[in-house]
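Quick one, T. Sequence first:
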Amino acid sequence: MAFGLTANGLATQTQSEIFDELAARVQAQFGTNTNVDISSIMGQWINITAEVQALDQSELLAVWRRFDPNSAEGIALNALAALTGSVRRGATSSVVDGLAEFSGAGTLPNGSLIRNEDNSTTWELINGPLVFAGPGTLAATYGAVDTGPTLANAVPPTTWSVVTVVPGFVGFTNPTDDATLGQNEENDDDFRRRRQRELYSQNIGPLLSIQGVVSKVNTSNGRVTDVRVYHNPAANPADADGIPFKAFNVVVETDPPLPLPQIPGPTNPLAQDIADAIFSATGAGGESYGTSYGDTTTIPLNLITVTDAENQAQGPIEFDVVEDIDIFIDIDIEVFSNNDDGPVVPSDPQQMADLIRSTVATSLTGAFVQLGRDARALDTSGVIQSLILDGELSGIKSAIVGVNNSGAPAALAITSVALAAGTGADFTTAAPHGLAVGSIVVQTGFTDPTYNGVFTVTAIPGASTYEIAAITFSATSTGAADVLIAGATAAITIRQKPDYDTGNIRVFIDGGAY
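Structure tokens:
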């Protein structure tokens, strides 16, 4: 192959190809008997020259690629993308909500630091100043000093310590929620793909055009980190998602997060930026729909309008802000008791449970890459399988995983046990159990150890009775049943995003809760 420009771009040669070309030229100049073998002096000189030229061609190719956004990297890609209006998304910090505790009067200013002792990270107050008149607590929001996805609540309760000493400030707690994870700087591959979507959306139908324009919102007020646009072309008066006939629904995720619900009164500046973007890309007759922002059905002060080119108010503009939905996960692990599959690692059940819990939360959060019905985020069993393949878990006999978004199941008191109509035993609960055939239950506290453990429901004789065929009835006894979630039943709507808080992940190992 010859070096030079072709219809496909800049063509370069390998060192071997350059050597052969130079050797042929030497023999053409000095005769075919000239020794150009690599072991000869002439051959060594040709090889050194070929190596230098190959390195030069490689550098020229790198320069050439910097002018092509499909191959440019780093700063060069930023400059090329900026020509068409695309800007690389920078890194953001994780944010955690909780309570600041005070022992007396004082003021806690923005930037005051605390330290997460569980993962050695530092966080700063971002919703201050917090002015407190005396002992008590105030809602506080802290952001991680370092950017990227930093968890705040790996295994609750988190241990926080005060770094910036302020008179009257005692400490901070986040008793329920983990952090809203920050993001690393957008890498080259993701930036290229998003730029292609933005360019494509400028020359196609209105939905993707609106999505492309809204995705570019990045001002001093904040930025849009993700966006999806849905519409209802046929269902009258509204479709299953509540979108009216012929209307469209913009769903956004922002940094910083827009408050939910919308605060009545003057429009949030970032919300106004989003509304302006929606209006600029909406065709004639287009009607926006939303329930989070701009919806005046119950609160007229939520009205959002935009100013057109003739300085006239246009609207209303409505859109939705993605809502974090708590996902509850139950994981039941059974380990080998006689080393049939090698030693159990980690050998301590609590360490095993903590490893599974933190890995599941981190992995599933990272797996959710797109707003809307993104079922890939629910591959909990795959996370556990990866831990086994990586050697971090071993000795696992079975793993049963259940997922839902309707709340953590509560323990049920069992009032009696009786012989089943066929084989097995019937268990009667103090209240309706809501179980179905195939549900998984963990039973504890029975005086007869036969009834303790993890079982599958085989029949439902009544609303407060369930049957387990695997148990041989021996004597009436009482105890407690903790109902495990069975199956991946979490339903993510178009306006929701799953929140995998470690506090909502329960791990059972050989029937014990950890």
